Amino acid sequence: MARMAGRRTLFAAPVLLVVTFGVFAVAAASPFDPVKAYAGTAGLTASQDNLDQLRANLGVDQPLVTRWWDWLTAALTGDLGDSSVLRQPVADVIGERLGWSVLLAATAFLVAIVLGTGLGVLAGRRPGGWLDRCVSSAAYTLEAAPAFWLGLLAIWFFALKLDVLPAGGLTDTASDTVTFGQVASHLVLPAAVLGVSQLPWFFLYVRQGVADALEEDPVRGARARGLSERTVLLGHALRSGMLPMLTLVGSRVPELITGALLVETVFSWPGIAAATVQAATSVDFPLLAALTVLATAAVLLGNLLSDLLYGIADPRVGFDG
Amino acid sequence: MVARSIHGAMRGAGAAALAGALALTASACSNPGGESGGTAAKDTAVVGIAYEPETLSPLLGYGKDGNSKIFDGLLTQDVDMKLKPALAVALPEVSSDRLTYTYKLRKGVTFSDGQPFTAKDVVFTYSTILDPKTNNPSKGELDAVKEVRADGDDTVVFTLKYPYAPFAQRTVLPIVPEHIAGKQDVNTGDFATAPVGTGPYKLVKWSKSEKIAFEANPSYWGGAPKVKKFTMAVIKDDDVRATRLRSGDLDGAILPPNLAQGFAKDKHKKTWTAKTYDYRNVTLPTGNKVTGDTAVRRALDLAVDRKAMVDKILDGAGKPAYGPVPTGSPWFAKGTERPHDLAGAKKILDEAGWKPGADGVREKDGVRAAFPLWYLSGDKLRQDHALAYASDAKKAGIEITTQSGTWEVIEPKMKDEAVLAGGGSPGDPDFDQYTLLKSSLAGDGFNNMAWFTDPAVDKALDDGRRSGDTAVRKAAYDTVQRELVMNPGYTFLTHIDHLYVVNDRWDGLSTQTEPHDHGLASGPWWNVETWAPKK
């Protein structure tokens, strides 16, 4: 298990290297101009001299490879550089925002896994029953619905029509302090939307897994031995029905990140995903590169986690041979 | 159902806190629905703005036109845009060659951290902005400054490279404390997010793309503000801003005319209309065979129906524009208004040899009277102006193809193709006219986008900039505007009013004449420090 984790970490280094270079290359090829983005509306009245000076100061007049190499060598010594669009060190940007993103994503993921598994077991127990039919059709509908659309719908219904939950932000507009109650009430809608957008996948996998497992010999045997329905369902059917879902945990991480990107934007959540959008449209190289490394690491970690869980849940699989 | 499950998950963590938060949400700001009135604290104001500053550091461009809340300039502008002293005790003394400006500073002023304000801070502010290493995109506005030096603790002397009449207005620029900003990297230091100034408000917190919260500076040299807490919520979407104003989350907001109309019958809210220098125009590039032709330019100038644009596109909230100077300004050259005269336009084109072709589009020497017109994609207002302009031109036999794109797409084409542009800086007539019309600035960044060249205009612009005599300047800018009638290198379309809806709970509200960029400093809250709660 430790060997597998170690091997994966070694493998992650070249992946990250290639990914960061890719980000620099794509950003350099994009039509967006970092100097224009930096100057904002003031750039529309700035003189050419002023714009050229800015270009030199920001270092974006350097060739692509030089820029990437400078960034990489600095990053390896712990200096992530300065974000041009947010005008603060990249480390500060990430430090300020990562926590809120993790809170949102973790809550949403938890909602999706717990609810998805719970509903999946109930539905898988009686395939074709009323609960199964209701939840399954809802799941297929949700699977097709984009997260930002769900977000707008939720704002319209809960914030505007019912006026029971805040429409966005981390705290109320007039409030300056971040209190637990404020954050909790502001977290409900975005986390629910992000969770619900991920839920169908877990639900459908668990439902199928459990339904299949209930037909298998070990379950029949358990039933024949007179074990309680609860033990049969949770101890036997769920355990073997969970396996495909564990793979899903890893593969849903990228989806969760892109989903968070949209949800944070819709709900003005001050997380890292909202900064990603800004970094991308402003060709903010240092910030973009650091965020890409984070996202790549999250995906690699998600895969590792699901492989480890798989090994634990099904000893036959083992850890990477 | 899902929301409730999450509620359930959180209940363990403190249902009471959540319920409390929800109750707070409902009553946080003023009276939900705006019906009852008077329940909320009158010393708190929350307003919705559409644009957020990129930085709060004046060294990087924040607050350069004044009203920065956190800072003061040497001078400031009153409601009529007249200069008056702020951190200086009087308007500057100007030498007879108009190259030296001397400011006497106010004594006993402290920054909000308690440290005294001195001439050193002024010198630090200006010299840092002018340092090439400082990433300030607006530093071109201080181009005239050759040197700034302190003469003792309370006198600052500016020396200019050339006589520059509007210089005093540039000194509304906010002054930063050297003892804080001087100790960090100007471009990336945290002064940009945690600024300290001498101004009427102190920054409490800036949550980027969410809100900027201020609290009153109790030791402000101009007297402590009565509105103790002032928050600006950054809400880009017009509809969301209107909804949050209606729900009571906001006390005021900037709104487009059609949404502002929805509040006309609300007795507890008042609509403020600010006059502006915010123009929309069409660049007619000199390098293009069609738009570079004076007859075509003059015909377009007459063919366009500005009144219809104001009525239909702006719902009446605006004025026809004939140049960057609004018709209501004292600098406007009376008599340069152009009527909508389609017959006159056709006559000019006929006489110049632009004859209608088979498809109704005119031609001259094998050149079709047709050109593309670019507008910024996603900008509904510019799109509407562009379409109306193309339709007016069509009636005179000129074919304009409208196309949308981002600045990245538009910029390389600006030399030969027309652009629906916008801008406007209030106050001195030099600001807009010099950068739009001076031939030496043709194609310099976004200055003189039309590559406009006219020797008479060039000379008049220099005269107006160099002279300190108002009558001489007025004559110079009258010349510029008259020349623009003869050779309209841009078709000016409209000046756009800015509309604000604010809860009627305070006295002392007014609006200044506003610029094109109207974020934080404009609106009825330009002087929130002098608002007083209504009895």
Automatic annotation (TrEMBL), chain A:
Pfam families, A to Z: BPD_transp_1, BPD_transp_1_N
InterPro entries found in the cross-reference section: BPD_transp_1_N, MetI-like, MetI-like_sf
Primary location recorded for the protein, binned into one broad class: membrane
SUPFAM superfamilies: MetI-like (SSF161098)
Residue ranges constituting the ABC transmembrane type-1 domain according to the UniProt record: 98-306
Subcellular location: Cell membrane
Family, per entry: Belongs to the binding-protein-dependent transport system permease family.
Protein name: ABC transporter permease
Organism: Streptomyces noboritoensis
